[in-house]
Amino acid sequence: MAPPAQMCLVNNGDSINAAAVRMVMKEAAPPHSASLLDADEFRRLGHQVIDFIAYYAGMGSYPVHPSVTPGFLRRALPADAPSRPAEHDAFAAALRDVRDHILPGLTHWQSPRHFAHFPASSSTAAALGEALTDGINVVPFTWAASPAATELEMVVTDWLGKALHLPESLLFCGGGGGTLLGTSCEAILCALVTARERKLAEIGSKRIGDLVVYCSDQTHFALRKAIPTHRDRMFALSPADLGAAMRADADAGLVPLFLCATIGTTQTSVDPVRELCAVVAAHGAWSHVDAVYAGSALVCPEFRHLADGAEAVDSFSMNAHKWLLANTDCLRQPALLVAGLGTEQEYILKDAAAEGHDIVDYKDWSVTLTRRFRALKLWLVLRCYGVEGLRDHVRSHVRMAAAFENMVRADERFEVVTVRQFSLVCFRLRPLPEKLGSEKEANELNRRLLEEVNGTRSGPYMRSAKVGGIYMLRCAVGSTLTEERHVTEAWRVVQDRAAELLGKMEITNGVVA
Amino acid sequence: MAPPAQMCLVNNGDSINAAAVRMVMKEAAPPHSASLLDADEFRRLGHQVIDFIAYYAGMGSYPVHPSVTPGFLRRALPADAPSRPAEHDAFAAALRDVRDHILPGLTHWQSPRHFAHFPASSSTAAALGEALTDGINVVPFTWAASPAATELEMVVTDWLGKALHLPESLLFCGGGGGTLLGTSCEAILCALVTARERKLAEIGSKRIGDLVVYCSDQTHFALRKAIPTHRDRMFALSPADLGAAMRADADAGLVPLFLCATIGTTQTSVDPVRELCAVVAAHGAWSHVDAVYAGSALVCPEFRHLADGAEAVDSFSMNAHKWLLANTDCLRQPALLVAGLGTEQEYILKDAAAEGHDIVDYKDWSVTLTRRFRALKLWLVLRCYGVEGLRDHVRSHVRMAAAFENMVRADERFEVVTVRQFSLVCFRLRPLPEKLGSEKEANELNRRLLEEVNGTRSGPYMRSAKVGGIYMLRCAVGSTLTEERHVTEAWRVVQDRAAELLGKMEITNGVVA
């Protein structure tokens, strides 16, 4: 069955063109206890789901972002779960609900025209790796609880660390080691707790109130208090500013605890790792590098220098699910100490088989006990595409972003606000003093531009950022399905909307109406 | 293709009987950038993966727990990821690796003879729901980031809350609300942070060092300091003991902050929620109920009384992935306040569409920003099986556990240590004073019994617990594939191993050799 060349996904909550999906909705026996995990039933329904996803992946010209209002789905669905499903084939009926009620209300992150936030790149190997993981469904919280799952996680974190050119001190092969957590918030939390325990062991737990954590105002959401950055340093954290803050705190009797430096903020600024680590080391604090988005770019030797100095960091985290084809819920690589997080109890006591061996129980590497077999997916991605395949992928997005950047630069009405380093372009309509008067008006104009761009039904979907008082549009290239034509077309839509907006302003005498 | 009636999965690292899997390994084109997410390629490989999982689910007589030693897989795999996969069809080669190297080293949680830890129950709807989630791959961290995903999460947490007979005050329909997090550790952490912020707002943040958290020594790992429980109360937390502890702390100038009560500990004790909440309320502290395992049983009216008094709790969490057919990474239901965890920044500012509406941005309900579309899976499970289907499932396991319990009770060499409430039986060989002398020897004997039971290649796989100084074997019935014959056979293996062990002891004059 070939995918429909085009499909009609209406966003007003009405049903989408149903013909294509109907093909995969065959008859099924009603589920009953004995068939909850029956192999034949699984195979039959599984093929339907695969066809359904393939159909979804084949969509091209639907709106990326739905025009729905809050409550649309809650009103459409019953207030209670069914007692017994009414339908003969409840699974097929459920797939119809997905098609008619759920898909039309999603923001389609896999769309080639999704340029918002950061990408959630997917791939066939990742999506099927996930399906395989869930089919096997083991819980490797200790080595014994599923030995191959723990060992595969050790193998792939080393594989990935090497592919990213990370120092061996962070890898198992160099005495460190990595783990796969759900999100970077969790990774930072783990590093923070470990740093705290290390410091309190040194200075006594009574001084917990004196500990100070540092980051720039561009750091990940998980951390809130911040040292300001400035446009003239491209919003990177200044080692001098950090040093001054740490000295002042130490003089006031406080204890510098933790620095979170970032490689690739939401505006893709890159903090100078080597210089910052030197400042941190002087105060005996913990240095963590958060490379959630841009860490993926380290697979390419041309980006390797951005992690210079990483051999001095205590921990490092990145997301394979943002840009390395390994869809959501994949990867971090912190070299954590078990001391801060370990548990030991009879219920999960080490196996006899493990006695005398230096094993890894990943439950001690995170805040969670239950965990998924995440390594299988990442292994499949690395195994099937290879490091060179990932490089090709990253480079193709960087190329497309560079092309978009060049188009922005060639239009004098626009400016690129921060230097593009990866595949994200932050840009805006220039403030025109003679027309707009102030930054505030420029911000308002760009806010309206984004609204217009996203209001184009077959157009791109972008989001904004506000840094140093400047409102900018963000074009984040990163969907696996994005091709050059999507980028070119996205820019054309931006130009058209801008022309229309500026035209209207001229009529109303330069005042944003 | 019918699943192989039987397969041979050898645990020594050698390849398993390959004929069946080979059938699903067809030729494939080499992956290249353009085909990373190609619909046809996805469909072709997807069908292979579904057949592979169906084959895995159809396995019956393989060892549940592998006899491997640490390092077995790391030694078998290359030290680096491939640069370019050597094979023409890398995906098929990877599936062969799964079959030959990874499956033989897993502990098979889905085996009908897996009675260890707590179950990780799966079902066709859940596993395929997960596959569907990963195929769609959206990131609903705000309402706008994928509206239908957020709304479906609101719908299913209400559905589930009602199915569990929870008070409406914890549901959206009653002014509360639920969210789906990765693990219960995360749920407890969120509740704890929220409780802390609420209390510090009241007493001032300088007193952070005075806050005290309470739980029993049977509480979940996420919490460590504990009030002792005793066998005569079936290891439930005593309200009198809690009250005394809180009073003593308050008298000493400390501030009672948080109680974590448990419905169904690892030994399935149940804390008296109503009485404990009354104690907590008197001190203005936060009460959280952790019903990670036994929360699933609340779908059955006959277990509903265990949550009596829950209308007074501040938050509640449970796992659908343990016993409600919704495999790993599914559900908690805390009614959290956003205050402690919320973030607000231009980058993820509310959509125009959401303005003026009281929307839920789930990023503010957890420690993580990135999150999966977890609601789809749980919705599929509830939609396809219905509340009655879940009841059938829970009751069938409770019946099997009761049968196991009766068999234990009928053998006077054994005793059931804690009263069985759900589908977990904690039992041991009785200490025989005239032969064994002490509890310590009884513990050693039971430890050896477990080793013998788990050493039976085609036998059951159980784990142990040690509570109040008593080492006990845990038979946790909960695999979706478990039938009565597996339970009967498991008991026969236990009896046989016990007879052999006791026989050896008689020969050596009552001393454990």
Automatic annotation (TrEMBL), chains A, B:
Cofactor: pyridoxal 5'-phosphate
InterPro entries listed in its UniProt record: Aromatic_deC, PyrdxlP-dep_de-COase, PyrdxlP-dep_Trfase, PyrdxlP-dep_Trfase_major, PyrdxlP-dep_Trfase_small
PTM annotation (N6-(pyridoxal phosphate)lysine): residues: K322
Signal peptide location: none
GO BP annotations, alphabetical order: amino acid metabolic process; carboxylic acid metabolic process
Keywords: Decarboxylase, Lyase, Pyridoxal phosphate
Gene Ontology MF, one: pyridoxal phosphate binding
Origin: domain of life: Eukaryota
Keyword Lyase applies: yes
Entry annotated with the keyword Transmembrane: no
One Pfam family it belongs to: Pyridoxal_deC
GO CC annotation: cytoplasm
Family annotation (PANTHER family): GROUP II PYRIDOXAL-5-PHOSPHATE DECARBOXYLASE, TYROSINE DECARBOXYLASE
Family: Belongs to the group II decarboxylase family.
Name this protein carries in UniProt: Tyrosine decarboxylase
Lineage: Eukaryota, Viridiplantae, Streptophyta, Embryophyta, Tracheophyta
